[in-house]
Write a structure and sequence with these properties.
Structural class: alpha/beta
Shape: globular
Distance between the termini: 38 Å
Helix content: 25-40%
Number of strands: 14
Radius of gyration: 20 Å
CATH architecture of the largest domain: 3-Layer(aba) Sandwich
CATH topology of the largest domain: Rossmann fold
Order of helices and strands: HEHEHEHEHEHEEEHEEHHEHEHEE
Strand order of the largest sheet: 3-2-1-4-5
Largest sheet: 5 strands, parallel
Strand content: 15-25%
Number of helices: 11
Length: about 350
């Protein structure tokens, strides 16, 4: 295991403005931003905050995720965000990524990896910022992993994750999932190695992130994974949260899956902060360490994450998946069904 986040710190609320103003105002900073240029109003939040401080020291790659079922209202919102971003940051470009192949297979992760590989980071870049606010898991996770690896190969380059978080907004966005659950590119299950004992039984642990209105998505993933064969299922719930009853409401919404299909032991719920990605990362890391000790020499452990809903919690899951080689199983979105109001974002 390689430690990527041992010295990681987080900033929230007013601390973000203070950090951006103080850190990025240093004249030697040259920053590359990778973010979305979609319909979500959060697409512009981080970019404009950085541009205000960095000016022409900021360049950007904005990802436009193209899906066949997007309605015109959402396309119009995305066009407006794209135009605003390109005007605000002259040293930027938009990369259009078709999320699905002609046969319907999700290929967005492979395509964003190829697009970033074709755009090597200039030597003068001192900081890389990945804005996960409006990037999907299928695009954001592979992009972040590749850019983190680049920063670790260049000791003078620093990696940052930024998120404009609004859990209420995440709940309002409704999507039409595809019917093909698949591992996220770069986060596929690790195959048995030559060092593994051949007769050790595989013990899989599924860790789905519960989110409002996403039961059909998790049902698809669970069916594909054959969750009845899993050693344990440990759902993730948000607590503490902006709405103190959010975890209780989710347990009620998923009651049938929890009791009848997944057979979750109440002691196996994972409660993580809705606001701090390090809480999710550390909780998953401790769980991995505990099961490693318990199963050593008896079972071959495989942990499978399914992060949906809250962007902050998903970011923490991504951090743990990168560090501990956890698999990420996901259902890509074919279309988003409900436009959102920018008035929700603060």
């Amino acid at each position: 295991m390689r430690e990527h986040w041992a010295n990681c710190i987080t900033h929230a609320d007013d601390e973000v403005d203070t950090f951006v103003d103080e850190y990025f105002s240093e004249e030697h900073r040259r920053v590359l931003l990778v973010a979305a240029a979609g319909f979500d109003p959060r697409s512009r939040s981080v970019a404009l905050k950085l541009q205000k401080v960095l000016g022409n020291r900021l360049s950007a790659v904005f990802v436009r995720e193209e899906r066949p079922g997007a309605n015109q209202a959402l396309r119009d919102r995305a066009d407006a965000n794209e135009t605003s971003l390109l005007q605000s940051i002259p040293g930027s470009e938009v990369v259009r990524i078709e999320i699905f192949a002609d046969d319907g297979a999700p290929v967005g992760g492979r395509r964003i990896a190829g697009a970033l590989s074709e755009r090597p980071i200039p030597d003068e870049i001192t900081d890389v910022v990945v804005d996960l606010s409006a990037l999907s898991v299928g695009i954001g996770f592979p992009a972040a992993r590749l850019l983190l690896e680049d920063c670790e190969k260049n000791p003078g380059r620093t990696f940052h994750l930024m998120i404009a978080s609004d859990p209420d907004l995440d709940d309002l966005i409704r999507s039409d999932p595809s019917d093909r659950p698949s591992p996220v590119r770069g986060f596929a299950p690790i195959a048995r190695s030559s060092d593994d004992t051949e007769d050790m039984e595989l013990a899989q642990i599924w860790i789905p992130q519960l989110a409002q209105g996403r039961a059909s998505t998790l049902n698809l993933i669970g069916s594909q994974l054959q969750v009845r064969d899993f050693y344990k299922i440990c759902p993730i719930l948000p607590f503490p949260a902006k709405d103190p009853r959010r975890a209780d409401d989710l347990v009620a919404e998923y009651q049938e899956q929890i009791t009848e299909e997944w057979h979750v032991d109440p002691r196996d719920f994972l409660y993580v902060s809705e606001w701090n990605p390090l809480d999710t990362y550390r909780r998953l890391s401790r769980l991995k360490l505990r099961f490693d000790r318990t199963m050593k020499g008896t079972y071959l452990l495989r942990m499978v994450l399914s992060p949906i809903g809250s962007k902050v919690m998903a970011a923490g899951a991504m951090m743990a998946a990168i560090e501990h080689d956890m698999a990420v199983q996901y259902v890509e979105t074919e279309s988003d069904l409900r436009p959102v109001s920018s008035s929700i974002l603060r």
